[in-house]
Design goal:
Radius of gyration of chain A: 21 Å
Helix content of chain B: over 70%
CATH architecture of chain B: Orthogonal Bundle
Largest sheet of chain B: none
Distance between the termini of chain A: 39 Å
Order of helices and strands of chain B: HHHHHHHHHHHHHH
Strand content of chain A: 15-25%
CATH topology of chain B: MetI-like fold
Number of strands of chain A: 10
Structural class of chain A: alpha/beta
Shape of chain B: globular
Distance between the termini of chain B: 23 Å
Oligomer: heterodimer
Shape of chain A: elongated
Helix content of chain A: 25-40%
CATH class of chain B: Mainly Alpha
Largest sheet of chain A: 5 strands, mixed
Radius of gyration of chain B: 22 Å
Structural class of chain B: mainly alpha
Number of strands of chain B: 0
């Protein structure tokens, strides 16, 4: 990266600044002292985010770095449960953005969440079919058709839990030919034409572009997945972590997330 | 590979033992670490749950089938590579060995493009009423794809070590090529074939990436033990670790049974 040298220099200055502030401004909280010209926190943080947030959080991190000079946001994407395992095992994460409340609770139970998690996005399921829709799927009920090659997520993973909830509430018996462990695997089976239909999140359908076709269905409201975000208790730069969360949950973050298809948890 | 001769010089410099100990620790410590993590109080219920037993059964059955397929396809390949003489032999060997170094996921994608519904052969197969995707057959194909090189390499090595002298003698005595193969060559390389088959079985048992990509994951149909472990890990780490130990135990038993000491192997060969 070309700005590495510059950011290193800023980092050193920032380090000196923080060191001098640390003595006097311990209790000053987030209100910046009036005599410092630039108020925002600096340094670097690592954000652990659910795999489904890859494109949005990459953009959010870029935007954040641009609007907060002297900061670096490292990103690590994986399944939410993998991330919880990694953080519990001591991985250096400052922020955790989970694809479901269950995994956030797991991290809270481990005493690794600072403060209260904030819900920042929602996601609902959509039917996904190959662009030509060879099986002429139009509704959730069509997915129960015998002989149809349906691929869904396994109930053990968040998208599968949502699938199960939707199927049960609508009274539709889903008989998949495969229960995959990730959304990516479901999408892969549909884009390759192996499966006639799958159930994934709206955001995954949007991200897959014209390789697939998404079909909305009203029953999807039975399982709305909520994404919480929180500062990790072991973070060495909580101030910056909080600033990143504020930006991700604020209007600018909302805009990026909405463009990717994420819903607003606050209506 | 050198044949063991009567000369008894086997001394190994002491420092080699030190390095070998490091190597052995490197392989064994992770297994010990896993065993330590196991929730022994729950171990039996965890590994005897219905989904675990189904996955184990499926793994054993598909691995046995793919090993049989490896033997069927691997013996001719090894013979052709070791005894044949034709243009493109080196290229053929390179391709046969490719799955050894190919990431299994890549193998899975390649199989999908071959046997999948939209694949090279898939359309014709579908017309013939054969559907491979999402079936147990797909699991066996994926396992065979990754395991075949193990059998071919072992057997080709054994064939080269055995040499062609006995075959030549048999031929001069009037035996037809097929008779030579059946009565001389195969008995001679039986230990090599056995260890190759065991390696193939073990590799099939551990197959994950290609299966996940190509066959999918459904209990009792395509969800083998490694896939079950991967899925269990999402919700129940204890169960995943317990099942991992089962997989390790099965693999150790299988490998130990066949990889006996060289003396044992010779005895085996002599008995057959």
């Amino acid at each position: 990266m070309s700005f590495l040298g510059k950011s290193m220099a800023t980092l050193v200055t920032a380090g000196a600044l923080i060191a001098s502030l640390a003595g006097c401004a311990q209790g000053a909280a987030s209100d910046a002292s009036p005599n410092s010209p630039r108020t925002g926190p600096t340094g670097s943080i690592t954000v652990f985010a659910a795999a489904s947030l890859k494109s949005t959080f990459t953009q959010l991190a870029d935007d954040f770095e641009a609007s907060h000079p002297g900061t670096t946001v490292h990103l690590s994407f994986a399944g939410s449960s993998d991330l919880v395992t990694q953080i519990t095992a001591g991985a250096p994460a400052d922020v955790f953005a989970s694809a479901d409340t269950k995994n956030m609770s797991k991290l809270q139970d481990a005493g690794l969440v600072a403060g209260t998690p904030v819900d920042f996005a929602t996601n609902t399921l959509q039917i996904v079919v190959p662009p030509s829709n060879p099986a002429s799927i139009a509704s959730l009920g069509d997915l129960a058709r015998p002989g149809l090659k349906l691929v869904i997520c396994a109930p053990q993973v968040p998208c599968g839990a949502a699938t199960k909830a939707v199927g049960e509430s609508a009274g539709v018996m889903l008989a998949p030919v495969s229960e995959e462990s990730s959304v990516t695997d479901v999408l892969g089976k549909v884009t390759s034409g192996e499966a006639d239909a799958g159930l994934v999140y709206v955001t995954d359908v949007l991200a897959a572009g014209d390789k697939v076709k998404g079909i909305e269905f009203p029953e999807s409201s039975a399982a709305v997945n909520t994404y919480p975000i929180a500062t990790v208790a072991t973070s060495k730069n909580k101030e910056l972590a909080d600033a990143f969360i504020a930006s991700a949950t604020g209007p600018e973050g909302r805009k990026v997330l909405a463009a990717a298809g994420f819903g607003n948890p606050r209506g | 590979m050198r044949r063991r001769s009567g000369i008894g010089y086997t001394a190994v410099p002491p420092w080699i033992y030190a390095l070998a100990a490091v190597g052995a620790l490197f392989v064994m410590l992770p297994l010990v670490a896993m065993a330590v993590k196991i929730n022994w109080a729950q171990f039996i219920p965890l590994i005897t749950s219905e989904s675990s037993l189904t996955a184990l059964g499926l793994s054993l059955r598909t691995s046995a089938a793919s090993t049989a397929l490896c033997i069927l396809l691997g013996i001719p390949l090894a013979l052709v590579l070791a005894r044949g003489d034709f243009p493109g032999q080196r290229v053929l060997r390179a391709f046969v060995l490719l799955p050894l170094v190919l990431p299994p996921v890549v193998g899975g994608i390649a199989l999908l493009y071959t046997f999948g519904r939209q694949g090279l052969l898939g359309r014709s197969l579908e017309l013939a009423g054969i559907q491979i995707a999402f079936s147990t057959t797909a699991v066996i194909l994926a396992q065979t794809f990754v395991a075949l090189p193990f059998l071919v390499v072992s057997l080709e090595g054994a064939l080269r070590t055995a040499g062609g002298r006995y075959e030549a003698v048999a031929a001069t005595l009037g035996a037809r090529p097929t008779t030579v193969l059946r009565r001389v060559t195969l008995p001679l390389v039986l230990p090599g074939l056995a260890s190759g088959a065991v390696l193939s079985f073990a590799r099939s048992l551990g197959e994950f990436g290609a299966t996940l990509t190509f066959a999918g994951s459904l209990q009792g149909v395509t969800r083998t033990l490694p896939l079950e472990i991967y899925l269990q890990r999402e919700t129940d780490a204890d169960a995943a670790v317990a099942l991992s130990l089962v997989l390790v135990a099965v693999a150790v038993i299988v490998v130990a049974l066949s990889y006996r000491s060289p003396r044992g192997r010779q005895a085996m060969a002599g008995a057959s």
